[in-house]
Amino acid sequence: MNLLLLDSTEITSNTAILTGRRAEHLLKVLRVTPGDTVRVGEVNGNIGSGRVLAIEGETVRLALELEREPVCDLQVELILALPRPIMLQRILKQATVLGVRRFHLIRSRRVEKSFFHSPVLEPEKIRTILLDGMEQAMDTWLPEVAIHHQFKPFVEDVVPTLAGQGLIAHPDGKGTLADVPVSGVPGQRLLLAVGPEGGWSDYELQCFVDHGFHSFTMGNRILHVDTAVVSLLAQLQLLYDLRKR
Predict the structure, then answer these.
(1) Rounded to 5 degrees, what angle do the CA atoms 102, 139, 95 make?
(2) CB 48 within 8 A of CB 140
């Protein structure tokens, strides 16, 4: 836990009282004592520090100074053909660590319908996974997660409302990452579409292209979806940083 996260409802007059998992981490892992400071952030708010005021049994009381806004120049929304549940858990956490701001979990032709009934998609389970990623990355932005059970309504009704340059990864894409239109302008928004293990169908790919998505390939190797997502996000961030100079 690199950042202690608090909901706004837990903060009163710049103080917070912690119990449970977070208090246990402070007491047993960090071994804090009164006067010590730890890194603290408010979910969807500022980041700063918390000074330990008192320890009472398994309860820790903190005085908070949350004065800095977290920085994220590149805004990425991930459009993901819903993968197997165990893979989805890894993707949600790692993509959050790498800065994804919103997830769209969608149905494509090669997605099994049963995946949409997984307990992983329960709101509280998703929130737990996202918070874990935020704590790791020291970020306070809680990504949104939207679930779309049908492809056509998503691509026809939702995609046109999304802001940003669309990118779609596909083995037969017409360009490479070097051709991806990432400008390096602060605040740039990208919509990254990643398909299922078997790839997008020709119809699905064309739908995205018709809506202005730039198709590209990562090369000859076919990656598992969780590997592809991490690799793509890392490379897009690097490309953005290089072009920002």
Answers:
(1) 45
(2) no
pLDDT of residue 97: 95
Query: Could you identify the residue written with the tokens 């779609």?
Result: 168
Whether pTM > 0.90 for this model: the answer is yes
Q: Residue 122 gets which letter from DSSP?
A: S
Domains delineated in the chain: 4-68 (2.40.240.20), 75-244 (3.40.1280.10)
Better-predicted residue by pLDDT, 221 or 160: 160
For the beta carbon of residue 7, count every other beta carbon within 10 angstroms. 13
Q: What angle is formed at CA 138 by the lines to CA 135 and CA 141, rounded to 5 degrees?
A: 85
DSSP state, residue 178 = G
Q: What's the pLDDT tens digit per position in 207-238? A: 999 999 999 988 777 888 999 999 999 999 88
